[in-house]
Amino acid sequence: MAGIVCVVTTVLFGMSQGLSTARTYPPNQVTLLDSRSVQGELAWVASPTEGGWEEVSIMDDKNVPIRTYQVCNVMEPNQNNWLRTHWIRRREAQRVFVEIKFTLRDCNSLPWVSATCKETFNLFYHESDVDGERSIRESQFAKIDTVAADESFTQMDIGDRIMKLNTETRDVGVLTRKGFYLAFQDVGACIALVSVRVFYKKCPLAVRNLAQFPDTVTGADTSSLVEVRGSCVNNSEEYEIPKMYCGADGGWLVPIGSCLCKPGYEERNGECQVCKIGYYRSLASAGGCSKCPEHSYSVREGSTSCSCDKGFYRSETDPPAMACTRPPSAPLNLISNVNETSVLLEWSPPLISGGRQDLAYNVVCKRCGWECELCGDSVRYSPQRLSLRSPRVSVHQLQAHTNYTFEIWAVNGVSKHNPGPEQAVSVTLTTNQAAPSVVPSLQCKDITRHTLSLFWPEPQNPNGVILEYEVKYYEKEQSERSYRIVKTASRSVDIKDLTPLTSYVFHVRARTAAGYGEFSASYEFMTNSMPSPVMGEGVKSTVLLASILGSVVLLLILTGAFIISKRRGKYSKAKQDSEEEKHLQSVGKVYVDPFTYEDPNQAVREFAKEIDASCIKIEKVIGIGEFGEVCSGRLRLSGKREQCVAIKTLKAGFTEEQRRDFLSEASVMGQFDHPNIIHLEGVVTKCKPVMIVSEYMENGSLDAFLRKNDGRFTVIQLVGMQRGIASGMKYLSDMSYVHRDLAARNILVNSNLVCKVSDFGMSRVLEDEPEGTYTTRGGKIPIRWTAPEAIAYRKFTSASDVWSYGIVMWEVMSYGERPYWDMSNQDVIKAVEEGYRLPGPMECPVSLHQLMLDCWQRERADRPKFSQIVNMLDKLIRHPATLKRTSRETSRPHASTLSPSPLNVCTASLGSVEEWLKTVGLERYRDNFTNAGFQNLENVVHIKQEEMTKMGISSSSHQRKILASIRELLSEMQHVPGRTVPV
Ligand code: ACK
């Protein structure tokens, strides 16, 4: 026996060479007992106390003593040796693990003990709340398992000093008491317990998805999962409840939900770190910190948004990532087109959009008398007043002959932060005369056999003083053509001498100084058979007021009287008509030539208001007129607001004749009252210098203005200017005034691009016109603007003004180009005589060029009237699509209106670039063309405007002239048989 023990001991010693005292445990294990870490004796309780388990101290490989238990009673049968540990506190564990390291002797290697030798031992536990129970009966222990060695050692192993250490781990649970004892039962094995470690498992503190999960003891069951709720790490917030499961083996499983870094922080290395200065993070769900967008900044760490730079803003709906923006600048180039009581306003977008895409426009309408007040609800806007997306609006139902100011505000999403006058542009205008609107209803107050007493309300928009009403009526059964008319100044009339029991249809209309309004809808009333009046109500024509008296009987009785009265009715109609005719008077005003006055000063007194010189403040000289300086200044008339005016002065030392001629312009101008005719404020004749004071036109004369703004306007704006001039000319021709010198230089333009006809001096047509040329008949005439019949035999009429108007249209579309360029006056006369007409300027819509050609019809009767021109231009403005096709896309206009010009003939027949340049008066560019490689005209026809600029032809008017000539050339080539157009 002693020999065996000795052998075992020897083996244990040998094994101890491989044992380490390093006590490092996996992080998810909490050790409750480790026999190797006990200093001194273990002093566990062995039973029997003698001859059973024995505590033996051995050295590990670091020479640190460790305590072991051994037993080796393999030769004696019926062994029952118990070894019990001390009480082990359970702490929080519900399931504990027992790791046993042991060595076991192979029974086969001890052949003489094979009957009694065992190769297992039993492991027990006993739960108890008490530390240090004295004696525990065997039966109180519960078995955990029978432990067998994976490897047992033999005598040979001892000789070879081979370590055969077994490690077996068993778990036990669910534990419920405060602690427990373990017991090892040996039933006859040769065994050494090298170490015993008891531990439980924990899932260690972990951070997943920015949520922190604490140390968590595993569940009681081997398969149980403990659900743990995480808490968000610093500077983060719960996005979705963070959860994880702690598995029985101490590992975390299945993270669910998450936390997100708060605004102002971003995730870095599983933490939420603050955004740096100049950066921001606005939403917990957004990515990382971002740099402050344009025009914004942040001055502290952890910013959730960036503040806007001064003068820049964010709207409520702007995302923090969007750059800060600012309100737009004012719209540009506001122009107005007045059409009776409607106005078309158009403008160009502002220079500064503020960096936003939500630019819109609001319209403010003010009616201005002594003071301005906002327009009421009766004014209509199309498409709307506010939030306009396109730069145009038409305003309707204004009052006639009234001053209005329209402000167009450019607005965007941040305008409300800093609204200011720099965001608006305004225009002041006067509406035209307009006929009254329709009489809205008609009623019949009394009905008798022969009389209907009608009354009606005033039209909603009288647009002036109603001079009279006209009632048109006819028997329903008869044709509308046999109508009768009654006129009255009041809003009621008795229509007499009617046929009894007859339905009549009535229309009524009102008249003001501007003419008649539209007839009302039709209303039907029926006379009755009663001699005394009954009340009647009008119905619209489709509805028949049928049910008057069913008295067929009465009808029969009255047949005789009926026939007689019907005859009388016809007679009295004739009488009535002739009486009414007498009321008709002409409303048209005719211009009076001041030179028909015996004393021309009388005309001045009649048509021009005398202004006291003290009311005028001259500010600066703006030009030189034929009689003296032209100045700008201010006029303050008592009871009126101060206004800017232009002042023409008569130079000192004038003759009486010059004074008369000078003032004749005021006598003419003073007769006109139209928004497209320069308005005369008055004259100063009682002191010197003699002055003519007129409204001030900020942009001066049209030709210079266009040249200064070459290419800057939309076609609609240009047509708007033309429309204004045509409207002014219509007014003049309606008054039988022939201008004789209509040209862009004699049109003035105000700040709203409104064009007004000016220059009504009497003498200049013959004497002082800068363009004037003496004709063979002696008079001085502006040849390029003047119709052939006026040049040839001084036939000046509104039709010759129409010719000049066509030239003005051409000047407008070519931005102030000189008509017929450098051609001499003689060549112009000859070319026009031969049928040459100016080609459409570059980008000129075909429809406008066609209108010009119409104005240049040789037969003056074939030319359109100004009223037709106004209508035509209105139509084009209303349908801008008609302005799309430009002459660039067209071939030659109608052959009958544009026969070959001298220029064209030249270009088609002469092949060289040099000769062609000569014909267009631009031979100075010969070298430019040669140097750029343009050897023949075939190449030239492909030239682009940019190429010309590169070649050194910088004048845009010369470029245009060249392109126009090329178009002509091409068109000419198309008409030459057998020639292919090189395009
Ligand atoms: O082209 P402008 O600037 O416009 O130069 C001439 C100059 O005076 C000599 O006629 C200007 N002018 C004439 N009448 C007016 C006016 N009512 N408002 C502004 N400028 C005017 C014209």
TrEMBL record:
Which residue ranges traverse the bilayer? Answer: 543-565
Q: What range(s) does the Protein kinase domain occupy?
A: 616-882
Q: What class of enzyme is it?
A: transferase
The membrane topology of this protein is:
Single-pass type I membrane protein
Q: Which cysteines are joined by disulfide bonds?
A: C72-C190, C107-C117
Provide the GO MF annotations for this entry: ATP binding; transmembrane-ephrin receptor activity
Q: Which CDD domains match?
A: EGF_Lam (cd00055), EphR_LBD_A (cd10473), FN3 (cd00063), PTKc_EphR_A (cd05066)
Residues making up the signal peptide according to the UniProt record? 1-18
Q: Which reaction does it catalyse?
A: L-tyrosyl-[protein] + ATP = O-phospho-L-tyrosyl-[protein] + ADP + H(+)
What's the chief localization of this chain? membrane
In which domain of life is the source organism classified? Eukaryota
Q: Which Gene3D superfamilies match?
A: ephrin a2 ectodomain (2.60.40.1770), Galactose-binding domain-like (2.60.120.260), Immunoglobulins (2.60.40.10), Phosphorylase Kinase, domain 1 (3.30.200.20), Transcription Factor, Ets-1 (1.10.150.50), Transferase(Phosphotransferase) domain 1 (1.10.510.10), Tumor Necrosis Factor Receptor, subunit A, domain 2 (2.10.50.10)
Q: Where in the cell is it found?
A: Cell membrane; Early endosome
* Binding sites annotated in the UniProt record for ATP: I622, G623, I624, G625, E626, F627, G628, E629, V630, K648
One BP term from GO? axon guidance
Q: What is its EC number?
A: 2.7.10.1
Keywords from the UniProt entry: ATP-binding, Cell membrane, Disulfide bond, Endosome, Glycoprotein, Kinase, Membrane, Nucleotide-binding, Phosphoprotein, Receptor, Repeat, Signal, Transferase, Transmembrane, Transmembrane helix, Tyrosine-protein kinase
One GO term of the cellular component aspect?
early endosome
Active site, renumbered? D741
The SAM domain extends over 908-972
What is the protein name given in its UniProt record?
Answer: receptor protein-tyrosine kinase
Q: What is the lineage of its organism?
A: Eukaryota, Metazoa, Chordata, Craniata, Vertebrata
